[in-house]
Amino acid sequence: MEKTIEYIKSKIGDFNPEIGIVLGSGLGELADEYCEIKIPFKDIPNFPESTVKGHSGNLVFSKVNGKNVVMMQGRFHFYEGHPMSVVTYPIKVMKKLGIETVILTNAAGGVNPYFKPSSLMIIKDHINFMGTNPLIGPNDDSLGDRFPDMSEVYTKELRELAHECGKKLNIPLEEGVYIALTGPTYETPAEVNMVRTLGADAVGMSTVPEAIVARWMGLKTIGISCICNSAAGISTVGLSHKEVLENAEKAKVYFKKLVLELIKNI
Ligand code: HPA
Question: What number does CATH give the domain 2-265?
């Protein structure tokens, strides 16, 4: 961690990020538009390279709407074969760099039959269905408690702020429960049925490990899902990563506006 931080600091000088953002599949454009300092993941000591199409793999620093922001353009997924310690490493790095708030975004499948593709969902709560937990192992007491409270992973105040921003910008926002499965397969219709029964509104392969670690470290956290497709069985057609990226593309304009307004008001 010391090496990672030392390297990043050598690139950013006295830039002190206040807000961290993880940009999900197809949502990385914000980091192209606001980019004062760009550090490719591959240059950062102890950062692995991102391997997924639609995830560029840069750490980007910029002033955005008056706030100092650090953006993860791309993230590390469990399904890539990274251990949870690697999946959540960037969140720890951003915390060490001084952020107080983190905005986690992702592309997800809509399990709630009322959700339309390309809509946005504020994550109210999550279900960790990845079969593991990023906090398994010795606890670093300097970062958080051994048994952290998860009754409000996604900060209520930030969720309310997001809804205010949505109203102001005329962007309809859903709110619901996100369930994380490991992937990389999309779900079967029977699995979608199961997660619906469990109370999920959206299903995806990321965010939950990062949110757990963020909450554990006391970061204010908000999650936004781009509902890129109806999950398997909800719609009559099959799924493809191409469709997911195409629908993320359609939602991108709203998504960017919402995130920018949120940053302005945090
Ligand atoms: N399932 C899981 N992850 C996803 C989906 C989905 O349908 N769409 C985008 N990410």
Answer: 3.40.50.1580
